[in-house]
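A note from the maintainers: we've had questions about how concatenated examples are separated. There is no special marker in the raw files; a new sequence line simply starts the next protein. For clarity in this README we add a label.
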Amino acid sequence: MQRLHKLENLLEEINKKPAEIPAEKDRMLHQSLNRIKSVEVDLEKTKRVLHATVLKQLEITELVDNLKESSFHRRRLWC
């Protein structure tokens, strides 16, 4: 019975204490979050550059196709 009372007292003490993250772990969490945010920014920049590159490639492809088509028509006219 005395053990049970002792355990209840310990539980009450634990419940009274605020839930706190140790300072070192808190610092590590903040550093990790900062790295994640940095990676997200880098990914967004890469995504924009990649999108611009794809648009440029499509534009070049269309120009090359038009050039091939116009040279094909010119050859047919001269033959």
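[label: protein 2]
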Amino acid sequence: MPKIIDHKQRKISILRQAFALFAQNGYQNTSLSQLAGSCGISRPTLYLYFRDKEEIFTYAVKYYTDEMFSDYRDVAAKSGPVLPQIRR
């Protein structure tokens, strides 16, 4: 029976791993081979989701920026002092 893959979840997983590798190694020192290996996929599979390293970087930064703003919106929607909530 073929393995069922949640493509949206895999793409998010790739972005999270890419962000971690870029933060650890820097953009220039992170290869697509490293990224694919750390995700447990092949480079050709990586190219099914993204055109190139630049696109992965762009989407990874956007993903985390969106997550951060979502967290801040959640904090702003709650009642009470905002600063202690942000620090958490």
